Amino acid sequence: MKVTISDVAKKASVSKSTVSRIINGNHEQNTQETVNKVLKVIEELDYKPNALARSLKSTKTNVIGIILSKLQNQFWSSVLEGVEDTCRSYGYNLMICNSNEDGQLEEEHIRSLQMHQLDGLIINPTLKNKLLYKKLTDNKFPFILMNRKLYDQDVHMVTVDNIKGARVAIEHLIQTGRRKIAIFLYPPAEISPRLERLEGYKQALIKNGIKVNQSLIQIVGEEAGEVEEAVKRLLNSPDRPDAIFSTNNMMTLSILEGIKSQQIMVPQDLGLIGYDETVWAKHLNPPLTTVNQPSYEMGTIAAKKLIYLIEGKEDQMAEKVVSLEPNLIIRKSCGADKSY
Amino acid sequence: MKVTISDVAKKASVSKSTVSRIINGNHEQNTQETVNKVLKVIEELDYKPNALARSLKSTKTNVIGIILSKLQNQFWSSVLEGVEDTCRSYGYNLMICNSNEDGQLEEEHIRSLQMHQLDGLIINPTLKNKLLYKKLTDNKFPFILMNRKLYDQDVHMVTVDNIKGARVAIEHLIQTGRRKIAIFLYPPAEISPRLERLEGYKQALIKNGIKVNQSLIQIVGEEAGEVEEAVKRLLNSPDRPDAIFSTNNMMTLSILEGIKSQQIMVPQDLGLIGYDETVWAKHLNPPLTTVNQPSYEMGTIAAKKLIYLIEGKEDQMAEKVVSLEPNLIIRKSCGADKSY
DNA sequence: TTGAAAGCGCTAACAA
DNA sequence: TTGTTAGCGCTTTCAA
Questions:
Q1: TM segments (chains A, B) (predicted)?
Q2: What residue ranges of chain B are covered by domains with CATH 3.40.50.2300?
Q3: Of B48, B117, B278, the CB nearest to A115
Q4: Which of A116, A231, A250, A285 to mutate to test the interface with B (most CBs of B within 10 A)?
């Protein structure tokens, strides 16, 4: 049997309002006696306030939502941990959805989460239907976009400087003597991390007087095997590169696979830098040089931003668009460390 | 401005009950005319029913909760994906919490989730306070335990056969000529996957007439560096093993680290098998032989079980305790594949 | 075929 | 210091 505030009130011989005041900590005016009495009954009955009823009145649920895709990617599970930790420390619960990069699904999730009256939303947007975010803004619904930029709307975002991430990686390759550097990308479409990494790649080349060679820009599909095939093709072409820059951590594993099948040695014959630091990067053969993104911080910052927004503490909040800094973790795969 | 059922009713010149019937699909008795009229207004106003109010009446939220720890471990993110996919396909939302192996925190999460009137809970239990699960059972609160067994209570569980997982791994090592096989474990306490993996290890040895050597059973703490140290110590002791069985995927990376620092070759000098298949296992040097656990299935099964339980479809549900089968993925690190 | 009204469990304004 | 009451947005019984 569910125990409600009325049960507590009855058993303690007080009114519901008194109980309500006490469970909400507004008992400055109550006798210590009543407070103790009520607290005792709450304990005895193991009374748990119904958050639904409370929220219905207060129009505040203390629940936020997060819409992600590819949970299995370590980058995202790390972001999620950051969000979860922050939510807990601020007294919020978290609802999680997986959009799977499907715009339709993303829309359904947003709708469903709004029906549950969530206080706000953190989204890694699919960008398939930009009207979605526009509607949220129009409804004054608090939300934060993460990782991918929405260029033409003035919304809160937490991103990483992807131009810099790519530039630093490519410049490092150039400094250690590589000249024919290939970049591997999933189809950029309008996805800013992909576009920006390509941009950073080009900037670094141009700045160092190296001509951008279109055939070294490899845009590959996400189906199994496509990356391996592209690597093999490229390594056997006249444009064979002396280094590869991979822009995704899963993709890097496939690239390695492709390289190995060609009996090519990393880093002697080919330098390699991957995007995203992971637990396994340093255990690959050779240990992988990576561009590290502050994923956990991205989660904590997005969550804090959202909570400030919800609680009207815009003053405590950083700029509307936060851009985090990536950094290069140098190991052996890029060839800078000559101890092989 | 929030639009409520009253707004719709007013604008459509019908009563709230009529609107309610229509949004819930109970409009067999309504004129097609009224239905269309109301639907049109709902569209125009972009009306979204308030799930809080609805749930307050119906005492059903269509939200379930999951309490995990170590989200960053691929095993768990894969489980989570299974749960999420299943929830979506059955029309449930998912609240996620991280217990961080902290019994106190676990209790707070359960309490908080119950306050939110969740329909049920999936838990990877810390087992720090068994009364917690007892109370859930006493309250007839639907919940499923995952991965770790609760031995002395009759509850719903989805687990993997860890005795078998370990046995298969060890038997494979024995068959390929290893005799001095070490096992690395985090402190087992009452955690069934750890206890069972140790049990499977012993069973396999005994069955093959190999004496269990206590100094080859390495129980190591979870602090950074402890595993590496233990590996180094063991490899330089008189009891130096000819194979190592790692019982955790993170631990395996540390073991590899320790091995490398000793200039020992895997698998020539030392065979190695790790627990849990991961995206990176096949890319390690040498490619890692692993015991694969059906993690995604564990998630889907746990979620389905819970939903059946919530919806009173116990008949469609498998046994109260489901045990899944692990399988060995043979690569080079164990030494069976002699192509080195 | 539709509507009126009670009530889910809680909070808060107002009254005592 | 405490209680009474209205109402949050919805569903559902009962009546029309």
A1: none
A2: 63-160+295-326, 162-292
A3: B48
A4: A116
Helix A226-235 × helix A249-261 angle, to 10°: 50
B226 vs A224, residue with greater confidence: B226
Pairing mode, strands A289-292 and A120-123: unpaired
- Number of helices and strands (H, E) in chain B? 12, 12
Whether domain A63-160+295-326 has CATH 3.40.50.2300:
yes
Sheet with strand B217-219: strands edge to edge: B217-219, B181-185, B243-246, B271-275, B289-292, B327-329
Which residues, including other chains, have CB under 8 Å from residue A162's CB and lie 6 or more apart?
A192, A193, A196, A197, A200, A326
Average pLDDT of span A134-146: 96
H/E element holding B335? none
Say which CATH architecture domain A162-292 belongs to: 3-Layer(aba) Sandwich (3.40)
Which residue from A177, A141, A140, A146 is spatially nearest to A159, judged by alpha carbons?
A: A146
CB of A120 within 8 A of CB of A143? yes
Nearest nucleotide to the CA of A6, by C1', is C9
Q: Which CATH number fits domain B5-56: 1.10.1760.20, 1.10.260.40, 2.30.110.10, 2.70.70.10?
A: 1.10.260.40
Chain A residue nearest residue B52, CA to CA: A52
CA distance A205 to A212: 7
Q: What is the mean pLDDT of residues A168-184?
A: 97
Model pLDDT for residues B298-337, shown as the tens digit of each residue: 999 999 999 999 999 988 887 899 999 999 999 999 987 6
pLDDT at B40: 95
First and final C-alpha spacing in chain B:
70
What global pTM score does this model have?
0.95
Q: What is the pLDDT of residues B225-238, one digit of tens each?
A: 999 999 999 999 99
Chain C nucleotides with an atom closer than 7 Å to a protein C-beta: 1-13
Which residue of chain A is at minimal alpha-carbon distance from B135?
A46
- Strand D bases near protein CB (under 7 Å) are 1-5, 7-13
pLDDT of residue B336: 77
Query: Residue A37 pLDDT > 60, yes or no?
Result: yes
Q: Which residues of chain B have pLDDT under 50?
A: 340
The SS3 of residue A278 is: coil
A66/B39 Cα distance (integer angstroms): 30
Q: Is the pLDDT of residue A340 over 70?
A: no
Note the CA–C1' distance, A35 to D3, in angstroms.
Answer: 16
